[in-house]
Amino acid sequence: MLGVFPYLFSTAVLFHSVAGVPLEIVPTPGELTPKAGGAAGNGECPTGNTGTPKCYRYASDFPPESAWVSLDCLISRGRADMVTVSKDGPDEADNAISAVQSVAGKAGIDPRIAFAVMMQESSGKVRPIIGDWGLSFGLFQVQLPGVPLCDDYPVNECPESVITSQVENGIYGHSGTDTPPQAPGLAYWLQAQGGNVGRAVRGYNTGSVPDPNDLTAASATRSYASDIANRLVGGLLGAQHEYTCPDF
């Protein structure tokens, strides 16, 4: 099935609450196993803006892993904007990238998914504007009060532990660094959707998957899953944000 992978488990206006969310597939522990390495990519790495992004409206359209660029490619296309656009320090950008790789690895999910979601949510800013009318915080814009922030630290002096905590909250959700993963974490949604990436990121953004087939059927950022897909195949550059699907 397209968009389904064997793992254990936008911008600012997002809705990650989960009350009353119907879950279609909930694997039992151990049913999904981590994929060692991963993130090798398709051998291509576009440079610059690749033109008009594609609308991946339906779950069956979501590009398979074989079509994704490598993690190194995603980082090379994103790191510069993490410094120049966000005005964070280079050490902070590198710590965010390192944390995504480390935490995603511990959670057993492909770090490319986590990196794409981070860039979609905050452009990789460790000091993002708080979204959702003051409800969403950090690199992954999660609705978790108490998420550690870098606002009180000078540029390039935010502690690595604070940046890592932001990533842990985005990937693990309410559980922080513990398992099982909980909403609104990315790992939770990947597990709840049986590893289907398109549906998982739809749930991460919206707090539910209103239509398992039409990934634009949502009240939040309708093109969110398509935007992530375009990032994974190298179609959106760094902090570039576009609504890759029109309003239907």
3D architecture notes:
It is a single chain. This protein has 248 residues and is mainly α. Helix content is 33%, strand content 0%. The chain is built from seven helices and no strands. The longest helix is centred in the middle third of the chain and has 18 residues, at 90-107.
Question: How are the SSEs placed, and which strands pair?
Answer:
Blueprint: H1 71-84, H2 90-107, H3 111-122, H4 160-172, H5 186-192, H6 197-206, H7 224-232
Summed up:
Helix content is 33%, strand content 0%. The chain has 248 residues and is mainly α.
> What is the count of helical runs?
7
Please give the share of residues in helix: 25-40%
Largest sheet: none
Instruction: Evaluate the radius of gyration.
Output: 16 Å
In whole angstroms, the N-to-C terminal distance is: 25 Å
Total strands:
0
Poorly predicted parts: 1-38
Mean pLDDT: 80
Order of helices and strands: HHHHHHH
- What class would the helix/strand composition place it in? mainly alpha
The portion of residues forming beta strands comes to under 5%
- What characteristic shape results from the CA principal axes? globular
